[in-house]
Amino acid sequence: MLNAGLLVSKKAREILGDDVLRTVFDEVRLSYVAEIGDFIFEDLKQNDVKSLLVVNEGSRETWMEDIDQRLGISPLAVTTIPYTWFENKSRDFVLALLMGYSSRAQLMDLAYRVQPTRASTISRRSLIRLKVYEYKPYPVLFDEVHAEREINKAVEACPLNLVVKAPEGPSVGSPEKCTACGYCSASSYLGYFEVPTATTDQVVAFINAVVRYYSKPASLMFTDGMPSQIVEGVFPFVVPCVASVHDSFVLASYSAGLTPIIHVSSSCGTKEMALKRLEEIPSHFPGTDLKVRKAKDDEELRKALELPLLDLGKSTIPSEVLLHRSRRRSLLLWSIEEMSRKVSMNQEDVVPGVYNVTVDPNKCVLCGVCVRACQMLVPDLKGNDSLELTYNIPYCIGSERCVKNCPENAVSVTGFARISDLKKKTMNKTKVAKCRICGKPIGSEKVKVRVDSMLISQGFQGTAQYTDVCNECKQKELTKIWLERLLSGKR
After folding, report:
1. What pLDDT does residue 124 have?
2. Cα–Cα distance measured from residue 9 to residue 319, given in angstroms and rounded to the nearest whole number
3. What are the DSSP calls for 104-163, one per residue?
4. Strand, coil or helix: what is 411?
5. Separation of alpha carbons 30 and 474, rounded Å
6. Taking phi first (over 0 means left), then psi (-120 to 50 degrees means alpha), and beta for anything else, what does residue 193 get?
7. How far apart are CA 193 and CA 185, in angstroms?
8. What residues have CB less than 8 Å from 147, skipping those under 6 apart?
9. Element (H, E) at 390
10. Do 242 and 301 touch, CB atoms closer than 8 A?
C-alpha cells in the first residue's frame, strides 16, 4: 500500500465535517489529511505521501500540475472528486463513499509503473512549465504471468494491435499510441494485466468499504464520466473507460449486495470500445433473473436510477480471494458461490468465460500428459492403489492445451460451463499397475494394457512380457539373462 493523503477544500470540509475526516483518517490509516492551503507541499513531502484523494469543486487545481515535478507524485495517483457528491447526504453515505475512495487511493501502486509519454497537444503554458509529456492509464502488469491463453487474449483484444508478448507477460508496446481504453484488461480471464487506476484490488477495496459502512440498499455505478451530482445510495466508481470493466467486477458487486450499474458517459473518449464492452458484459447474473443495469448514454442512466435498488443482504469479499493465483477468476467464482447462498440458481445456465471439459474414459489411459500440459493446474492425477484423474472445471480458461497434447485424443473442451459444472469432476479411474517382481507401483494399469497391445501389434511379443516390471527389476532380469548366455558360451 502507498502512503495516501486526503485533501479537502474549505467548502468540502464544511460539508464533510471534521468528525468524518477524523474517522476516515483513523479507519483507513491515511498518512495525511488537511484542508488545501499554501503549506501542503511541505507537509506532503514530510509525510512521504505518494497518492492523493482530493475533494474540492471537482476540477484539478493549478498546483496539481506540478505535483510530479515538485513531490514525485504520479498524476495518475491523484484522484479528484467533487464535494457536491456529499451534499445533503446521510452521514453513513458520506462516510462509506469517502472510505471507498480513500481505500482505493492506497492501492495506486501500479500508477508508478506507467511511463510518461509525449503529450498529444502542447500549449505555450505547458512549454513554460516544461510539461511536454503526459501520463496515460494504459494497462500494466500486476505480476508475471505465463499462461499462454491469458497472454494471447490480451494481445488479440487490443483494437490498435499495440499489446505485445514480453518475457514477463503482455505489455503495451507503444504507450504513446494507446488510447487507454482498457479493453485488453477487461477481456482477460485472470486479471494480471491491470488498468492502474481501476485495478481488481481497488474495486474489491471499494466494494468492501461501501458494504461495511452503508447498511441500506445501494448501487455501485461503474462510469467513465464525472457526474456533478449523485443520488443517495448510488456509489460511483469512476474508471478511465467502461471498456476496462471486467465481468467479475460486476458480479462481485452484485454478490456483495450492491446493484451494479454500468454507464457509458457522453464524455467518453473511446466510446466505441466502451459500447462494445457494454454489450459483452452479462445482461444478468448467471443462474438468476437479476438484471445488470446498463446505460449507453445519460438518458438510459436516468431511467436506470429510477428503478428500485435490490436488497440481497451485504457481504464483504474475503481478502484471500485475490491472493489466489487465478485472481479475477477466483473473484468470479466467489461471486457465484456467495450469490447461491442468497437466491435459488438455475443450474443449467452457463457462465461466460468458464469452460467445460469432458474426458472419454474409453480412450483415456491416465498417462498424465494433460496434467503436465495445463498451465492452470485444472487436471490432477492422484492415487496409491488406484489412480483418479480429476478436472477442477471452475479454473479452466479454455486454452485446450490438454486437448492438443493428449496422445489418445480423449479430451474435449465443449464450450462454456454451466452452473452445475462448477466443481471438481472425476473423469477417469484405474488400478495402479505394480511390478510383478518387487511390487513397486509403475503407473496406470490402462497405460500398461495400451503399451502391451501396441507392442504385440508390432510383433514384439517378447518385449511385452516386461511391461509389468519396474526399471530396476527389468535391469536385473536382463543382466541375469546376459550372464546366463555368457556362461553358456552364447554371444
Report:
1. 58
2. 33
3. HHTT-GGGGGPPPEE-SS--HHHHHTT--EE-----EESS----HHHHHHHHHH-TTS-E
4. strand
5. 69
6. beta
7. 5
8. 189, 190, 375, 376, 397, 399
9. strand 386-392
10. no
Burial class (CB in 10 A: 0-12, 13-18, 19+), 6: buried
Q: Which three cell numbers stand for residue 364?
A: 483415456
Q: Give pLDDT tens digits for 142-180.
A: 999 999 999 999 999 999 999 999 999 999 999 999 999
CA dist 343 and 289 (Å) reads 10
What does the pLDDT read at residue 374?
96
**Distance, CA of 394 to CA of 378 (rounded, Å):** 8
Per residue in 234-263, pLDDT (tens digit) is 999 999 999 999 999 999 999 999 999 999
The rounded distance, in Å, linking the Cα atoms of 167 and 147 is: 12
Residues of the chain with pLDDT under 70: 61-62, 120-132, 452, 455, 459-466, 489-491
Q: Which amino acid, one-letter code, is at 99? A: M
What length is written for the chain? Answer: 491
Helices 18-28 and 91-105: angle between axes, nearest 10 degrees: 40
Residue 295 grid coordinates: 446505460
pLDDT at 123: 59
Which pTM was predicted? 0.89
Strand-pair partners of 359: 411
Q: Taking a C-beta distance cutoff of 8 angstroms, is the pair 10, 35 a contact?
A: yes
Backbone angles phi, psi at 282, to 5 degrees: -50, 135
Question: Taking a C-beta distance cutoff of 8 angstroms, is the pair 4, 51 a contact?
Answer: yes
> Measuring CA to CA, how many Å separate 258 from each of 238, 250, 298, 478?
16, 9, 21, 71
Closest-CA residue to 217 (of 231, 204, 237, 198): 231
> Which residues are within 8 A (CB) of 109 and not within 5 positions of it... i.e. 6 or more apart?
1, 2
- DSSP letter at 316 equals P
> What's the burial of 39, exposed, middle or buried (CB within 10 Å: 0-12/13-18/19+)?
exposed
Within 8 A by CB and 6+ apart from 185, the residues are 139, 154, 191, 193, 194, 195, 244, 246
